[in-house]
């Protein structure tokens, strides 16, 4: 198959389709995923082609969705569940934290829960409350879950298939404000999926400051790098892709490369992914550092009403401001 | 794909809820236009007063006691609430609001419930209860802030005993129940004092009845015999999912299983919703515990302004429900009875125009909030992290001033 220009949304849709074609045990579940194709149309057309038994419109009950997905896993299925928006995962929190994350260990390895929990996340779309959150840290904090996020259509396509193929439960974060971004995706199995699900990717090579980021902020960081280049500053951009586990090798390499690191994400900074990355870097790369690791993220307030979100979310100015601070050391 | 003129039936391979039979049926036709013989109803589609029958008899006295003036007031509410909604919709289309969830078609359910509440009764809404807000005296302008994105609530719920809108489906059902448990502990039930005895009303949709929180609320309310009335607006759809994807037995019949009565009422008949709500609220206030009311109605518009219903439902279904319009019906009633004349109807329409203009102006003039206020009201007590971030934010912005930024 040749390369195609796809949106991130279509990349996810194609990835789901490929996984369903490859394995009849893959089933999709969630609110409105059938005829409507989900509120973001990620599952569009799949019920039509795979039937109601494989693309299941569930009752409006997130704990029910994840809890029954556990049962389906125990019966040999590979459910991919859709949580409609980030802020609606909390009713399912108990099932995910108490059961999904721990069942493999509790059974001493006998039971597997090969489930993918898809969560459209992040802000910037002018939504009402509970529709713009970045709650990845809650899940990354919990052992037993893999947490990943894609940033472009190719990753959407390949990572979705890898997540479904994984025998571990995967929380799959989709950057909703990037759903409509387009890029070339090579659908060829022999050349596609160059990276494992657990690996970080260098998105831009640079020598002065490293930006460590993921999901919706990858694009913002690449734009910042572009802007910085115009001023003669060379930024290195590392896309984490996997939030748990972290690709510590890639982080160390990127950190050592410039000795100056800024971590960028949408989530509030307190006890977030940035805290973990910064702590890892100071522990493992201390002698390579030219400046303290800085963090740029959402403020430590609940995600604000949409008229404030441009200020709440990291933007080019705030990223570049942090770069300047780092360089000033 | 739905097309204009498609049949209203939707064949579901595993059997469906036939509402009037109240049980799971074998595969067949899905009829969501018939509320069945258990449904309390006083007005037919033209607004003729239906004779007293076994189902509506317990509520007939309440309807009899209504004066022509009450009838006109109800009609006025229906029209004004519809106008508030239409204005919200228009404002969204013009980019003044980010989103609007329309109540079109559900006016009678909400006005009946809202008017049956007393001042001290407390309402816990979802996000579509603009009609209840109206009856509780919340200025409609207040509802716009959240949808415009300037706040996440925007009114003091204790001013009118109307709680903030709740977006996460089901959450508020438990809050209502807990509030009712508080009312109980305050001794504000069963005293016989009309101004003291208090009931609580919790609102959700048919989809909401699937949530854990909803079901837990019903368990708590039943166990506590709390003075709460659960008001389910069964508008037949939860975004794209018809309600046979949410339950196999209608909500009003499930109430029994939680230990209290359930009633189905014609949600497009304001006399019926008022009477049924009044009986349930009186029961709650007098210490007889919870009731579940299922208002059988229809969501005439899209789920919200972000939704496209042509993807999942057929136009013919909407047409059938248009015939059951709550305003047309109440108007028919007032006219047949000679309770209102043209001058009255024109007066209400003029009032609706004024209200619409007022809301529009208020919306357009709603100031964008001062940016640093996003750090306010996160905590009650001083919080050093938030305080430091606010200070940093302010000085960061000050650094741009005069820099051509
Ligand atoms: C916990 C939760 N999950 C998902 C959603 C997204 N959502 C918003 S409205 C809605 C459908 C609600 O249907 P229903 O309860 O029937 O009420 P209606 O909107 O029809 O009044 C869904 C799934 C949500 N708001 N909260």
Topology of this structure?
The complex is a heterodimer of chains A (329) and B (405).
Chain A: E1 3-7, H1 8-22, E2 26-30, H2 46-50, E3 55-57, H3 62-74, E4 78-82, H4 93-100, H5 103-106, E5 116-121, H6 136-140, E6 146-149, H7 153-165, E7 170-175, E8 182-186, E9 201-204, E10 209-213, H8 217-230, E11 235-239, E12 242-244, H9 248-258, E13 261-268, H10 273-284, E14 294-298, H11 309-312, H12 316-328
Helix pairs in contact in A: 1-7, 3-4, 8-12, 9-10
Chain B: E1 17-18, E2 23-24, H1 57-64, H2 68-93, H3 107-116, E3 122-124, H4 130-135, H5 140-148, H6 157-160, H7 171-185, E4 200-205, H8 212-224, E5 228-234, E6 237-238, E7 241-242, H9 251-258, E8 262-266, H10 270-285, E9 291-296, H11 315-322, H12 326-337, H13 342-364, H14 384-400
Helix pairs in contact in B: 1-10, 2-3, 2-12, 2-13, 3-10, 5-13, 7-8
The complex binds thiamine diphosphate.
Structure description:
The complex is a heterodimer of chains A (329) and B (405). Chain A is α/β, with parallel strands linked by helices. Chain A has two domains: 4-185, 3-Layer(aba) Sandwich (Rossmann fold); 201-328, Rossmann fold (3-Layer(aba) Sandwich). In chain A, 36% of the residues lie in helices and 21% in strands. Chain A has twelve helices and 14 strands. Chain A has helices spanning 8-22, 46-50, 62-74, 93-100, 103-106, 136-140, 153-165, 217-230, 248-258, 273-284, 309-312, 316-328, and strands spanning 3-7, 26-30, 55-57, 78-82, 116-121, 146-149, 170-175, 182-186, 201-204, 209-213, 235-239, 242-244, 261-268, 294-298. In chain A, the strands form three sheets. Chain A has a seven-stranded mixed sheet with strand order 3-2-4-5-7-6-12, with helices on both faces. Chain A has a five-stranded mixed sheet with strand order 9-11-10-13-14, with helices on both faces. Chain A is globular. The model of chain A has no long low-confidence stretch (mean pLDDT 97). Chain B has a five-stranded parallel sheet, with helices on both faces. Chain B has 405 residues and is an alpha/beta fold. In chain B, helix 8 (212-224) links the parallel strand 4 and strand 5. Chain B has helices at residues 57-64, 68-93, 107-116, 130-135, 140-148, 157-160, 171-185, 212-224, 251-258, 270-285, 315-322, 326-337, 342-364, 384-400; strands at 17-18, 23-24, 122-124, 200-205, 228-234, 237-238, 241-242, 262-266, 291-296. The longest helix of chain B is centred in the first third of the chain and has 26 residues, at 68-93. Chain B has 14 helices and nine strands. The chains are: A alpha/beta (329), B alpha/beta (405). The structure holds thiamine diphosphate (TPP). Thiamine diphosphate sits between chains B (128, 167-169, 204-208, 233, 235, 237-239, 299, 303) and A (31, 60, 62, 84, 88, 91). Chain A: Pfam families: Transket_pyr, Transketolase_C. Chain A: Residues 6-181 form the Transketolase-like pyrimidine-binding domain. Chain A: It comes from Luteipulveratus mongoliensis.
